[in-house]
Amino acid sequence: MNLHGVGILGVGSALPANIVTNLDLEKTVDTNDEWIRTRTGICERRVAEEGITTSDLATKAAQAAMADAGVGVEEIDLIVVATVTPDVPLPATACYVQAKLGAVNAAAFDINAGCTGFIYGLSVGSQFVKACVYRRVLIIGAEVLSRILDWSDRSTCILFGDGAGAVVLGPVAEGQGILNCKLGSDGSLAHTLYIPAGGAKIPTCQESVEARQHYVKMSGNEIFKFAVRAMGEVTAEALEGIGLGKEDIDFLVPHQANHRIIDAARKRFDLPEDKVIVNIDRYGNMSAASIPVALDEAIRSGRIKRGDLLGLVGFGAGLTWGAAIVRF
Ligand code: ACO
Q1: Which of 107, 89, 88 lies closest to 98, judged by CA?
Q2: CA 184 to the chain's CA centroid
Q3: 242-252, pLDDT tens digit by residue?
Q4: C-alpha distance from residue 176 to each of 78, 305, 325 (Å)
Q5: Closest residue (by CA) to atom 50 of ligand 1?
Q6: What is the pTM of this model?
Q7: pLDDT one-digit tens code per residue, 259-289
Q8: What residues are paired with 167 via a beta bridge?
Q9: Which residue's alpha carbon is nearest to atom 26 within ligand 1?
Q10: Catalytic residues
Q11: Regions of the chain with pLDDT less than 50
Q12: Which one of 73, 141, 248, 275 is CB 3.0 to 4.6 Å from 288, fit for a cystine?
């Protein structure tokens, strides 16, 4: 068996141009800029223009990641899209991305692990490379969450945004790249974040639409407490699994769900603020896209450099959680 490492060869992202500020939301729901900023850290978010789908954003992010990696589209062996907002229930959004890219040699499938989807994707995709089944794998986190939000529900509509981020995985030297991944789930907490209708349990019908059951329902408080604990524990486990500690981390790239959750995780790791990548103020929670978009921005701005040790950590619907330790 070949024991080479698996690394991130390139990173890219794509964001809709359309910005919706807290002040814009004040005009449509009973909320205010001060509440949103202090409770969540969010100032504005992107909302995809009509007609733009998850696969459109995913394709743009993938093209940017391939250009960054210097990898041609015909070299891509596998496309994994992590999303909770697929273009359609069937087939997988990854198949639309495959067609839009013209990635004729690629297999394609989706992962639904909520906001942890990108970390699940890294873990799954890296196994294919490690096993020498594939050499070039695209992992994409992409969401158009604006289409599954109840814009009259102030407890959810203020939190989320649209966007996509992507990485190209490939073989690297042993000891480089993705050093460890830890994943977890607790389905007994599924009810804390879910969409009741539109699946086999409650197929979409007039009653389900009238009851607004096709929109996201969330128990924010329960998730908040869970998230603070899960983010800290899973990152520590992923580090300990390879004999490293919190002092070894150069940058934490957490899922961007709430600034207060991120800050609690930061304190647990004794990290100064400048070692934690935060962009929730500009994008809100982009679910599976949050981590790769934050990673891409931090690389473009020169904060994260090749050789840095990164802790990527997320939590989300399922409930799920996961962390990846990456020597970038
Ligand atoms: N504007 C003004 N007031 C509001 C708003 C709003 N947008 N939303 C809620 N309120 C009110 C509530 O009605 C409540 O009023 P009351 O005290 O009179 O009853 C008050 O503000 C406090 O509400 P809480 O829900 O207790 O506020 P909290 O401080 O917990 O913040 C929040 C809510 C921001 C949702 C927080 O719980 C949170 O971020 N939870 C985590 C959610 C999360 O991470 N979800 C994503 C998971 S990842 C994925 O897979 C998508």
Answers
A1: 107
A2: 15
A3: 999 999 999 99
A4: 21, 14, 10
A5: 316
A6: 0.96
A7: 999 999 898 888 899 999 999 999 999 999 9
A8: 11, 139
A9: 221
A10: 115, 255, 285
A11: 1-2
A12: 141
